[in-house]
Amino acid sequence: MSEPRAFMKNSMVQLTLVRFREFIREPEAVFWTFVFPILLAAGLGIAFRQRGPDKLQVGVLNGAPASADVVQALKKDSTLVVGSYDDSAGARALRTGKITLLVAPTAVRDSVRYVYDPARGEAGNARVIVDRAVQVAAGRADPVRVSDSYVTEPGSRYIDFLIPGLLGMNLMGSSIWGLGFAIVTARSKKLLKRLMATPMSRYQYLLSFLCSRLVFLILEVATLVGFGHWAFGVPLRGSLVTLLLICLLAALSFGGLGLLTASRAKTTEAVSGIMNFIMLPMWIFSGVFFSSANFPDAVQPFIRLLPLTAVNDALRANMLEGTSLAALSPQILVILTWGVVTFFAALKLFRWR
Amino acid sequence: MVTVPDSSIPALRVQGLRKAYADVVAVDGLDLQVEAGECFGLLGPNGAGKTTTIEICEGLLPSDSGSVEVLGRRWESNAKELRELLGIQLQDTQLTEKLTVDETLTLFQSFYRQPREVGEVIDQVELGEKRFSRVGTLSGGQKQRLAVACALVGDPQLLFLDEPTTGLDPQSRRQLWDLISKFQAEGRTIVLTTHYMEEAERLCDRVAIVDHGHVIALGSPRELTESLDVSHLPPPEPRKTTATLEDVFVSLTGRTLRDE
């Protein structure tokens, strides 16, 4: 084992290398494992990002001597979107709700008229903002100096909820698809049978899948969590070691589930069906895209027993609240139980031919 | 690294073998003995039980009853040791297309305690030019040679080949015949199944004709052809030469392998 050549000829090393090569040489698999979750996170993160106060659409009637000055004054306020209208167009814009308020400068100097429907909620708001801008432009000085501070705490946004959920979903998907497909393909192509005719250790064969999963796992966690942290400032409040440990246990646990789904199926079509049957309920119930608290209380105990729920809860607690490993023991117990039970069931049921 | 096996122990001894599937009895009281150093052919129509018999001998299928002794050992007690000593080519294995020839053989090599060098086996099956090509890009003949290379890389004493030349062009077929003959010349044993009578005549010291799960004729190809009572057969077409059509084809097209 001391020299590299001997190491490279070790069957465990070779089997694990084969897993790597099979994965890397399948561009689709690389896309779904690494690129897709990031695209999904980016898309949802942007769609549900925190927006500032809505901009108010207002209009200025042109034709009066002061019209241009009023437009200039209103444009200085970033919460207003200003348009210039003639008589009939202004009336129509107001009527159809395109603008909430129309400013009509009068022929008399230093005099304006505000045209709006007081029953519309934002019209009163627009009146206040427009009037402030007009008065300030005319030289009004505010006696009190004010400053604003906005509350957008990282950790309470949708993207913060989403990233740990996507990570959990990804860990489940790559374990179950990765193992299920590779094993069933080998079985359907009689490759499994051919390998059984060699002195290859069956235990090493199954272990090689878990070994390669662990290496890809680190890459998966790093890309998704790194992306969330870099692009959206998703917090990492708990220990990174704990985070990695949760991911590791999750990958092994889902690996057991993947092995079980692949233990008897003879065709990839059959195993796809089984995998979707197993994963679909968890995508819905385990709080990936929305909180599982939305489901009725009666089903909550069952939802909590799903492995993906435990993984997502543990990941969120670690990343968003900095919860310690000890406090996560209920979730860890659920994850471990699933892993051990499915792994031994798979060994019992596994069809080598 | 040639270890000449004890020639007094038969390479394969099968007695009263029986194997039934849900709807059909595949092997029904089959007896067989293959001597060490022999090239032995199992002939028979499709569904005669050849593949089932071979897979039981390879330790891939359990039998219902009967005894199988391979190189003096039994699967029940010496499975691990036997897998080291056997080289196997299955009828329809598809090796991983994403791996190269070299990677595939290095993987198989890693399973054996005393394997052969990958490069040497690749040269032997004449895949040198394809060594670093993906398996998915190989032709049918090249894939078949790779399958045989996987069987050879463990440096086996006994080689099981299940229809090794089915679907191959005459060049690839002759190349495999040469390989089998060389393997046998090193004192090792081959058990093969085939549908080509000419192949059996050329390669096999003895053949067994199997039908309905048991042996219906056994002997050297010459013994079997001479034992045939030809008096009631229709007279053969008069032939100018004793060569077969395949001989003519090969003499015209050459023995160079045509893979692309």
Structural class of chain A: alpha/beta
Please tell me what the overall shape of chain A is.
elongated
Shape of chain B: globular
Order of helices and strands of chain B: EEEHEHEHHHEHEHEEHH
- Total number of strands of chain A: 4
Q: Work out the number of β strands of chain B.
A: 9
Strand content of chain B: 15-25%
Largest chain-chain contact? A-B, 25 and 29 residues
Distance between the termini of chain B: 34 Å
Give the overall average pLDDT of chain B. 87
Supply the CATH superfamily name of chain B.
P-loop containing nucleotide triphosphate hydrolases
Q: How large is the share of residues in beta strands of chain A?
A: 5-15%
Task: Please summarize what this structure is.
Chain A folds into two domains: 11-48 and 154-349, no CATH class; 56-137, D-Maltodextrin-Binding Protein, domain 2 (3-Layer(aba) Sandwich), CATH 3.40.190.10.
Keywords:
heterodimer, A: 353 residues, alpha/beta, D-Maltodextrin-Binding Protein, domain 2, 2 domains, 4-stranded mixed beta sheet, 14 helices, 4 strands, 6% strand, elongated, B: 260 residues, Rossmann fold, 6-stranded mixed beta sheet, 3-stranded antiparallel beta sheet, 9 helices, 22% strand
